[in-house]
Amino acid sequence: MNASPDLHALTGAYATHALPEPERAAFERHLAECPACTQEVAEFHATLARLGSAQALVPPPGLKAQVMAGIGEIRQLPPVTDPVGPAPRPARLGRRWPRLALAACLALACGLGAVAVQQHNEAARAGAEASRLRDQQASFNRLLTSPDARTSTAASGAAVGTVVWSPSRSQAAFLATGLPALPQGRTYELWFNDSGTMRPAGLLPAGDGQLLLTGRIDGAVGVGVTVEPSGGSAHPTGQPLMLLPLA
Asked: Which Pfam families does the record associate with it (predicted)?
């Protein structure tokens, strides 16, 4: 069967379950007779599996959420009083008591205020990180469902890296599993290979993770991975651990 060229462009959308029913049925009929699309769908499924396990967002502890939700509404418990009545106090302490109570209240208020500010800042940072991860995931999804999305995979020992790219979007992403943990002060850096000239494309914070590469593909023929000092380098300082072709 000579399939319409449009069917060959639906591999990414099919793998992410983004096709409406008529197109899905037509593509599955095409898939039964097209080994190239079958292989590409299998590669997309493997990439999506790595996407699901590469990076997880750890929510803030439940206690922190409860404190932040109730800090402006829950009143302080009243002091416990002795039913028999307070014991007699020396006159000097009685005269000093209002000032001591005021000082204690001020110290408590300052302490609670500092805790509230710290918790607010931590919650804001967690919210910003969650928003960043959601935006990154949305960008990954748009890249994966691009009609011309392609994948390339390479291995180095137990480590496996996959590049997903779209020529029409001039955008690429990298997913890794099994990269060894690095000592303090070292990080993995990604590079676009511009026919032998390596162009920085971002830092991978951990051995297992995903990264939307910075910069456009702009004719790059591949993507490389090196180990660099924390903060990255302008040029590779060692041999690439992986070189993945964009072909």
From this structure: RskA_C (PF10099), zf-HC2 (PF13490)
